[in-house]
Design a protein that fits this description.
Layout lengths: L1 E2 L7 E10 L4 E10 L2 E7 L12 E2 L4 E2 L3 E6 L11 H10 L2 E8 L8 H10 L3 H6 L4 E2 L22 H12 L1
Parallel strand pairs: 2-5, 2-6, 7-8, 8-9
Antiparallel strand pairs: 1-5, 2-3, 3-4
Helix pairs in contact: 2-4
């Protein structure tokens, strides 16, 4: 993206962008942001309110809302349990703004609390901001489909188990 002049918050118009709406993709759009929130989306170009307002030129690139990933093991090269900060920075670069890291791999139900404690202890600035919670995988998998776990260990979490995990993660 290139800037034409200086941009002065709290009003930011972004022009020459492609944007995705619920029912259509606009190939040439203008988005106005006021005080950090999207105010309006216009097809075509936007008449600027005065000659002091500068337009951020998106250069025809996509402008989309942040993505939420509810079952994520990592960034494709690194696992959350190995380096949550690296994964978080890489996901942000890819447009993910909220993630629920997957914890507790196949048949490891006895280790989930330990995984959560270790995971929580290693969270840094980026990962704390990015994470919306966590996703428990195996042994809490749909009995019908099973995934990669032994079907004999699939179970429903108890309320007590659930609260233990939530308290660990929110500590």
């Amino acid at each position: 993206m290139s800037y034409r002049g200086s941009i002065s918050p709290p009003y930011l118009p972004i022009g020459n962008c492609r944007t995705v709406l619920p029912d259509v993709v606009l190939d040439n759009a203008c988005i106005t942001i006021t005080k950090g929130a999207i105010k309006e989306i216009y097809p075509g170009s936007l008449p600027l309110p005065d000659n002091r307002t500068r337009l951020l030129d998106a250069g025809g690139k996509f402008v989309v809302p942040g993505f939420i990933d509810v079952n994520c093991h990592g960034d494709g090269t690194t696992n959350f349990l190995h380096d949550a900060e690296k994964v978080s920075r890489n996901l942000l670069r890819q447009g993910v703004t909220t993630v629920f890291p997957t914890i507790g791999y196949a048949d490891m139900s006895s280790a989930i609390a330990g995984q959560l404690r270790g995971f929580q202890a290693n969270l840094g600035l980026w990962s704390r901001e990015l994470f919306g919670g966590f996703h428990l995988e195996g042994p809490y998998i749909n009995r019908k489909y099973g995934a990669q776990t032994n079907r004999g260990v699939i179970k429903h979490p108890s309320r007590a188990e659930h609260w233990v995990y939530c308290r660990i993660f929110r500590a």
